[in-house]
Design a protein that fits this description.
The complex is a heterodimer of chains A (518) and B (503). Chain A contains 19 helices and 9 strands. Chain A is α+β, with helices and mostly antiparallel strands and 518 residues long. Chain A is globular and about 75 Å long. The two termini of chain A are 31 Å apart. The chains are: A alpha+beta (518), B mainly alpha (503).
């Protein structure tokens, strides 16, 4: 019941917003309350057009939603026109994206943990980076509609999510004493960034990535995901591609959200293996026998080490990189023997060098060599070159801000899409749709279907009809694009989360009711 | 099942007199008896003591705690601390076990109990004091708990009495996870067979989880019995933190008592160590030209950690977050004002544009100086410069980061290389540093280097009798290092001698 009322709320809002954009709003679609807002937004749209002052596509907004009578001429998204592509942070692009593609309702449900608005959402901090690079913290919204509306006004290039506070973050200055305003809950977050792999990756550096070094992220996700699920028993873990070179994890279980900093630190340090700065020397120093978490991680990582590190990255091809490998191995006679061997045949591949270690050790180059010590050193090397390098500070603090899923990365234009850890190997960061592509896809889709369907649908409506399997024409914009699988995955994630929360609530209520009986 | 709330006073000790007879009844207070040597301080004392006892007991305990804190500042190991504390504890706060035939058992335990609660009152007022009090009280508790090892039976009885709700791990589970559990108990071969395992929610033993000292499965931590000590200690800390907060809330009611408040005030003021009270007013050096363009010249007086940051900054024209933080606060501590500091960072980050600098870095520098941020930050003038303690224990540097303490966070080769780069070639010093590092006495290493670098000046100052005894103490703060170094190097330059004595 509650669910439906929200959907209604949603649909009304989208109704309002959509009619605003149409050049000739249908009288039936507008009700009295919407009129004022309509005018307001229309005005803004006009200004936006003046601002962009691009002769090639005048008033692109209204045209975009117009039933396209002439498919070729209608520039649905601004980037199509004349091969000029607009930057992803362009206000027009952002407006279309937030209006037509961003899954506001799912985001709301994800943070709200229930279909009816609660303080979980209303007291949640959002931080926005606006068009002029102004950074606004402590924003909050009671419902997804109001959030959507304000985002369409502000068009932030970046939305970050902070913790839930004891009171509404907007009211923080009005609380009497400072301690009455403090963060109480947030997902446990992890941030893994490929820049931290610069020491060991050879294909790219800095902000660049390619398929080869993305494999490090695959390894990282597998290890962290396994540990969080098996060891800690966390269930709701959302992995999100950060848009350029990293990946975020949001652990959303109820118990996790209320953890204090000490427990967050405990989880973070439990997972951290690679330690020490650039001057620290050996970065992996582990107690033996290996902790079950480490040995499991090693089992996961070993195959990747062979293929993705040794063969693909070829990490020890140059002499100075090979010298680093030698510093990680014990026993001086062994390392000098290896050094001599590699000096004699330059250009030896890393796989061959790795094999050489055992070969030389077996050949008895060193009398003092301890076989177990060597094995342990080799395990450490494997870990140093494969084990996840977490940006640990993100995880340790309850009140850390992290970029929201589905935001557009301003540099690449890619959408920060959720990644299904079960289908991780299929995920290609370079194939993640950019916002410009997505907007183009909406237009193309229209072209294929002919101009008969009405341009914009209400969110709630579309879903109901789709579930009934009656009509396909009522389709939301994101379903016309390659964003579809990502939104669908996100939705299923949110639904599972909400189900668990509801079950817990029902159970508690039942227990309380039982308690009353006695 | 509802978990018992440990904080509640034993219901029997509450006033259970029939309310109709209440006004005529004697209060239900009673003399607590102390069956165990150790105490979780769950129940506040209720008997009468004299005002003299009140003050004396508190002072005695304070002496012990202050010394404990000093031990931790000097990075003493647990064993060293125990040895150091033994005579002090015997003098001020003796606590004998049940098996000893001491006739003063009850009196000793009463003193321990009462003094703890008196100090609770004294140290509950601010967050900072509460944190420090919890830390040292936990240290004391740990010391005593470990001290008890000879009397395992007594200790176990104490642990049993706490009702900690630990589930034993069944034989089935032990078989199922045999290899994992063996990996954890593998440190001591042969013991694992008889070792007992407990199973608790992992949230209850975060420190064990953090150190990977337990086996985790589906949110449960499997704890070997030998780790129970740290579980008991974690529980102790947790309860103490919680009750201190309750105490803080009750404090205002104490205002009416004009006998106790002055004593308590006095007590908490005495619990201030050089580390905590480090303020810019005491650290700045009079007469020095501390400006952005002069930092290069001054950097020869910086401790190694700051020299390394400075060199990294000059090499990369960039520092990562914690590096910037550590260095900014240090510079603030030596007296670089905000404007100069901003100039310093702007010119140092010469590879980036003004825009990027203003957007990404300016705010943080201003925040460190308390120029922006929340009320408390602005009022407090930003953060205080990091002490060695903080640098050594918090935020170890990760990949690509240059902060931290080189003596601790570098490996030996890199440390030696760095020392040689800053001009320390003396083999005996390098050897000494190596030994200090191996013994984890990072302060000693740093002070050793200080003494070597300044050996001529120190000699002269000693000959002239300028140095006060306080200035010969171990350096436990990077800003103290700079101050002493700078003053020593500028000894002869008129007028400084007087200031030396003042300082």
């Amino acid at each position: 019941m509650a669910d439906e009322s929200i959907q209604n709320g949603d649909s009304q809002a989208s109704n309002g917003d959509i009619t605003m954009a149409e050049p000739e709003p249908l009288p039936s679609a507008s009700n009295g309350t919407d009129v004022e807002e309509k005018k307001e937004v229309k005005l803004e749209d006009l200004f936006a057009d003046v601002d962009s002052d691009d002769e090639e596509f005048p008033s692109s907004r209204p045209q975009e939603t117009q039933p396209s009578s002439s498919p070729t001429a209608a520039p649905g998204s601004p980037l199509e026109t004349g091969g000029i592509s607009l930057k992803a942070s362009d206000p027009e692009i952002l407006r279309s994206f937030y209006q037509r593609l961003f899954p506001w309702r799912h985001l709301f449900q994800w943070l709200n943990h229930s279909p009816t608005p609660t303080n979980d959402f209303a007291h949640r901090e959002f931080a926005l980076t606006l068009q002029n690079d102004v950074w606004r913290r402590y924003m909050s919204y009671p419902t997804s509609d109001l959030m959507r509306k304000e985002m369409l006004n502000l068009l932030p290039s970046r939305i970050e999510i902070g913790p839930v506070y004891t009171t509404n973050p907007r009211d923080r200055k009005t609380v009497r004493n400072a301690s009455a305003f403090r963060p109480v809950a947030k997902e446990l977050c992890f941030d893994i960034d490929l820049t931290d792999y610069d020491e060991i990756r050879t294909c790219c550096d800095k902000a660049n990535i390619c398929q080869k070094c993305w494999r490090f992220m695959v390894m990282a996700v597998k290890v962290v995901d396994a540990a969080l699920r098996e060891d800690f028993g966390f269930k709701h873990i959302l992995w999100v591609y950060s848009g350029r070179r990293g990946i975020h994890a949001w652990v959303c279980d109820k118990k996790v959200r209320t953890m204090d900093d000490q427990k967050r630190r405990a989880v973070a340090n439990y997972l951290e293996v690679i330690k020490g700065g650039s001057q620290g020397g050996k970065k992996v120093n582990l107690r033996r026998p290996l902790h079950p978490h480490i040995s499991r991680s090693l089992d996961i990582l070993a195959p990747y080490f062979q293929t993705d590190v040794l063969a693909t990255q070829d990490p020890w091809s140059t002499p100075d990189r090979a010298a680093h490998l030698l510093t990680l191995l014990p026993d001086r006679p062994l390392t000098t023997a290896l050094q001599n061997k590699w000096d004699a045949s330059p250009g030896r591949s890393s796989a061959a060098k790795w094999a050489d270690i055992d070969a030389v050790a077996k050949s008895g180059a060193s009398k003092s060599l301890d076989a177990r010590q060597l094995l342990e050193a080799k395990q450490d090397v494997v870990l140093e070159y494969t084990y996840p390098r977490l940006d640990i500070e993100v995880s340790k603090k309850l009140n850390h801000l992290l970029k929201s899923p589905f935001v557009i990365h301003p540099g690449t234009g890619r959408v920060c899409v959720p990644v299904d850890p079960r289908r991780l190997d299929d995920f290609d960061p370079l194939a993640v749709p950019t916002v410009q592509e997505l907007l183009a896809q909406i237009d193309e889709w229209k072209d294929e279907e002919g101009g008969d369907e009405s341009p914009v649908k209400e969110e709630g409506d579309a879903e109901i009809k789709k579930e009934d399997g009656v009509k396909r024409s009522n389709i939301q914009d994101w379903e016309k694009t390659s964003l579809k699988p990502y939104v669908e995955y996100f939705r299923s994630f949110v639904l599972a989360l909400m189900k668990d929360e509801r079950d817990a609530r029902v159970k508690r209520e039942r227990e309380e009711a039982d308690g009353m009986d006695f | 099942m509802l978990r018992q709330d440990f904080n509640r006073i034993d219901p029997k000790r509450r006033n259970v007199v029939d309310h109709r007879k209440k006004q005529f009844a004697d209060p239900a207070y009673k003399q607590t008896d102390y069956p165990h040597r150790l105490n979780f301080y769950a129940v506040p004392p209720t008997a009468d003591i004299t005002l003299e006892q009140f003050e004396q007991w508190a002072i005695d305990r304070l002496r012990v705690l202050a010394e404990l804190e000093a031990c931790s500042f000097r990075n003493k190991t647990l064993a060293e601390t125990a040895a150091h504390m033994k005579p002090l504890l015997e003098k001020y706060l003796p606590l004998d076990s049940n098996s000893s035939s001491s006739s003063k058992l009850s009196a000793e335990r009463q003193k321990d109990h009462y003094s703890h609660f008196i100090l609770r009152l004294a140290f509950a007022s601010t967050e900072d004091l509460r944190r420090r009090f919890t830390r040292v009280e936990t240290m004391l508790f740990r010391l005593r708990l470990n001290d008890d090892t000879t009397l395992a039976k007594e200790r176990n009885a104490f642990v049993q009495s706490l009702n900690l709700e630990w589930d034993p791990v069944s034989d089935e589970e032990r078989r199922e996870y045999a290899s994992e559990l063996a990996a954890l108990s593998g440190f001591r071969k042969g013991v694992q067979e008889e070792e007992n395992w407990f199973k608790v929610d992992w949230e209850r033993v975060p420190d064990l989880v953090e150190g990977r000292r337990v086996f985790l499965r589906a949110g449960k931590a499997y704890v070997p019995s030998r780790e129970s000590t740290s579980m008991v200690i974690a529980e102790f800390t947790k309860r103490l933190e919680r009750s201190l907060e309750l105490t803080a809330r009750a404090l205002p009611r104490l205002d009416e008592d004009d006998r106790l408040t002055p004593i308590l005030d006095h007590l908490s003021k005495n619990f201030i160590t050089p580390d905590a009270s480090y303020s810019s007013s005491t650290s700045s050096v009079p007469g020095a030209d501390i400006s952005a363009k002069n930092v290069d010249a001054l950097s020869s007086s910086f401790p190694l950690c700051m020299q390394h940051l400075h060199r990294s900054l000059r090499r990369d024209a960039h520092l990562k977050h914690f590096g910037r933080l550590q260095y900014t606060l240090f510079l603030k501590g030596i007296g670089l004002n905000l404007e100069e500091c901003l100039i310093f960072w702007r010119t140092s980050f010469h590879k980036i544009t003004d825009d990027t600098f203003n957007k990404e870095y300016r705010y943080n520098v201003r925040h460190s100086y308390g120029d922006v941020g929340g009320d408390s930050n602005r009022r407090g003038g930003g953060y205080s410069p990091f002490s060695c303690q903080k640098i050594l224990t918090e935020h170890p540097p990760g990949p690509g980061e240059a902060h931290g303490c080189p003596y601790r966070h570098f490996n030996l080769e890199n440390l030696t290389a760095l020392l040689q780069q800053v001009g320390i070639q003396d083999r005996s010093v390098l050897q000494g540093v190596k030994e200090d590092k191996e013994a984890q006495k990072f302060h000693m290493a740093c002070n050793r280097v200080f003494e070597h670098v300044h050996k001529n000046e120190i000699k002269r100052a000693k000959d002239d009798g300028i140095l006060t005894s306080a200035q010969l103490e171990t350096i436990v703060h990077p800003n103290e290092y700079f101050k002493r170094s700078y003053l020593l190097k500028n000894l002869g330059k008129g007028g400084q001698d007087v200031k030396m004595e003042e300082a």
